[in-house]
């Protein structure tokens, strides 16, 4: 868990341009590179769907498909966190890459090059797929992927890290799609026990 000396900000991220923008926005507005100290410890969190929820298959053939779907989802999760790390580095947020590990997290040093998440299933971690912490100034940055519904994963992360702020992107769904899929940002705004900031990516003017 992030240290309790400073408030914690959780930023939800997936492979969409909306969540990438939300992370960049949060870093730009709250983590000034030349500041002597940052106001928050940072948790960047990706909610990885389960293979069954992603495919929605039933019947005798489903068991044959699920391992391939699971492998793809883990690759996506790896790419999402790698992208988040690149953004943090580009914003000069991460200064020291000192790996912190504990018995409850998966040490990245044990991963093959390229962060091949398909190997993670060999280790007994029920929900937390992997977690990496970086020390920076007197701050802590955690990049984490947790399996589950993003609405629940984000709200649970707020409780786990005692976060004072949650930042999520607005996916810009239309009324029909929003009614069918639901809105992660709307759910978090009503259920997360902290301030929720919903960042909307500006439309490009032609």
From TrEMBL:
Annotated ranges, domain UspA: 9-200
InterPro entries for this protein: Rossmann-like_a/b/a_fold, Universal_stress_UspA, UspA
Pfam families: Usp (PF00582)
PANTHER family given in the database record: ADENINE NUCLEOTIDE ALPHA HYDROLASES-LIKE SUPERFAMILY PROTEIN (PTHR46553:SF3)
Descriptive protein name: UspA domain-containing protein
């Amino acid at each position: 868990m992030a240290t309790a000396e400073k408030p914690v900000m959780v930023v939800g991220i997936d492979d969409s341009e909306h969540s990438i923008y939300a992370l960049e926005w949060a870093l730009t507005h709250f983590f000034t590179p030349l500041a002597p100290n940052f106001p928050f410890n940072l948790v960047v969190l990706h909610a990885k769907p389960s293979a069954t929820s992603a495919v929605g298959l039933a019947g005798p053939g489903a068991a044959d498909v699920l391992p391939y779907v699971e492998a793809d989802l883990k690759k996506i999760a790896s790419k999402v966190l790698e992208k988040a790390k690149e953004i943090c580095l580009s914003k000069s947020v991460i200064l020291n890459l000192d790996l912190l590990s504990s018995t409850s997290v998966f040490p990245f040093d044990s991963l093959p090059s390229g962060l091949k998440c398909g190997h993670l299933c060999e280790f007994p971690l029920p929900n937390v797929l992997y977690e990496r912490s970086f020390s920076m100034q007197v701050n802590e940055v955690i990049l984490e992927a947790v399996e589950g519904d993003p609405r629940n994963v984000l709200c649970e992360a707020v409780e786990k890290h005692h976060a004072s702020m949650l930042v999520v992107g607005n996916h810009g769904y239309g009324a029909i799609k929003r009614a069918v899929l639901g809105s992660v940002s709307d759910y978090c705004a009503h259920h997360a026990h902290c301030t929720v900031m919903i960042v909307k990516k500006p439309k490009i003017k032609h």
